[in-house]
Write a structure and sequence with these properties.
Blueprint: E1 5-11, H1 15-25, E2 29-30, E3 34-36, E4 41-47, E5 52-58, H2 64-71, E6 76-84, H3 87-96, E7 108-109, E8 115-119, E9 128-133
Parallel strand pairs: 1-5, 6-9
Antiparallel strand pairs: 1-6, 2-4, 3-4, 4-5, 7-8, 8-9
Length: 134
């Protein structure tokens, strides 16, 4: 069921400073910022040869990233995203196996324009997991 690692997401306070580290210091290609109001974040993607790094900044007070940054003053890894071929069958299989799908259980459109779901960190070794249909 699980496919490639699509990206690792890192929550940051200062999106421009974080993007600069990857772009200017490490020489990576960094996308322009994208506001994702449905997810409460502004995001940029750092393109790597084998995966991506997603840098997240809160978009609004109710952002789950704002809450994460309150608890993690320096920022840090927020989630990992794995690709799946069929998000609905993956969701159903994961639920059958006892995994907790967060939210209402229905996919939302993510930053890549594809359906995504989040899975409880309690079920995945303390790591928030996103699955994205490819």
């Amino acid at each position: 069921m699980i496919g490639r690692l699509n990206h690792v997401a890192i929550a940051v306070h200062d999106l421009e400073a974080a993007a600069s580290v990857y772009r200017d210091t490490l020489g990576a290609d960094v996308s322009d910022p994208i506001d994702m109001p449905d997810h409460g974040v502004t995001t940029v993607f750092v393109e790597l040869p084998n995966t991506k790094i997603e840098l997240l900044r809160p978009l609004g007070e109710a952002s789950p990233i704002a809450k994460f940054l309150e608890r993690n003053k320096s920022g840090g890894m927020h989630h990992v995203c794995y690709e799946v071929e069929d998000i609905l069958s993956a969701r159903d299989k994961l639920k059958e196996e006892g995994a907790t799908v967060l939210g209402d259980g229905e996919p939302k459109i993510g930053a890549h324009g594809k359906p995504v779901l989040f899975l409880s960190p309690k079920d995945f070794c303390g790591t928030l997991v996103e699955i994205e249909q490819v």
